[in-house]
Design brief:
Number of helices: 9
Number of strands: 0
Shape: elongated
Distance between the termini: 28 Å
Number of domains: 2
Structural class: mainly alpha
Radius of gyration: 22 Å
Length: 180
């Protein structure tokens, strides 16, 4: 199954590596931070212009840069840097999936922002006491987040839903599926 690991998280790992004692940690961290920043920059450019051939040409060169950097530092890396570099090499398809599939973002920031409401609710309330209540809460929060992502009023959606159910049963209830 295809997967894109979060490049923002990888970036944080290399930022921590820079502060970790070790002969080459700072240089390795800076090298890969520059590469990751380049990847984010080119992804944003692709989002703006959707030039797939230009993006593809850059991605091919970028993969070579990653391969060369891994080869250059793999044998010199200490324990912490070595773990990161091995992970980058072993899971390259997951870290760099967006290079071949630019419609997939290189990070999971949208997913994390969508989950933030549920996490905050769980921390404040101490969570649900039953699986049934957990499912109900998850469904409610899904509706809230979907309305927000669609720029719709959550209150209006619930009001329309309740009116439709009261007057017509489940017929005529508003949908969260966008009209395409």
């Amino acid at each position: 199954m295809a997967q894109q690991k979060c490049l923002a998280h990888l970036r944080r790992h290399f930022q921590r590596l820079i502060k970790t004692p070790g002969q080459y940690n700072q240089t390795i961290g800076q090298t890969f931070l520059k590469l990751i920043d380049e990847a984010f920059r080119h992804y944003r450019l692709w989002q703006n212009d959707k030039d797939r051939s230009g993006y593809g040409a850059w991605a091919t060169l970028f993969k070579d840069k990653i391969r060369i950097a891994l080869e250059q530092w793999r044998d010199k890396a200490g324990y912490e840097a070595g773990k990161l570099l091995r992970n980058l090499q072993q899971k390259a398809q997951q870290w760099w999936y967006f290079l071949d599939n630019p419609e997939v973002p290189p990070d999971n920031n949208l997913a994390e922002r969508s989950l933030r409401l549920a996490i905050t609710k769980r921390k404040v309330s101490g969570g649900s006491r039953s699986m049934e209540r957990f499912k109900q809460t998850a469904n409610l929060l899904t509706v809230v987040q979907t309305c927000r992502r669609q720029g719709r009023s959550v209150i209006d959606f619930f009001e329309q839903s309740l009116i439709a159910i009261a007057l017509h049963g489940n017929f005529g209830a508003p949908s969260l599926i966008p009209n395409i």
